[in-house]
Amino acid sequence: MIINFIVQAMLRFLFIVQFTNASLPRLPAMTALEVYPHMTLTMLQQHFTDHFPNLQLELVRSDGTPVAGSKTMDELAGYPTHCCFVIDGDMPVAELEANFRTCFGVAVRVNRWTGYAWHDTDEARQWTLDHHNRQAKKSRRHTLLQ
Q: Any idea what the Cα angle at residue 81 is, between residues 39 and 102, rounded to 5°?
């Protein structure tokens, strides 16, 4: 029983390592954000804002209310995940949402500045994070000119 558990855990770990290292390209540190199990929500949101200054990242509960605090991704999942992935500007919002759901079992919402307020990106989930960030930057610039 214990040996079976250990073998399953090792296979899961090898799969995650293989998935993470083989299918995701390694990008320079300035253009990619690594999400890992021991990363806190606060740290994740700060790094996300550093990479995409015109976007906000919110983790949300099943009832749609935002999650706040400094819990780690594993703590939010409620179990050790051993899962990590890379966020870069070419990633569509829908893929980002799927990665958080698959790895940590949590929902995520990306909000974009529209000139006067933050709005979710539900209507354009196929757009990349860079595209949303550029659109929000244009809105911010337009707002400053008025």
A: 95
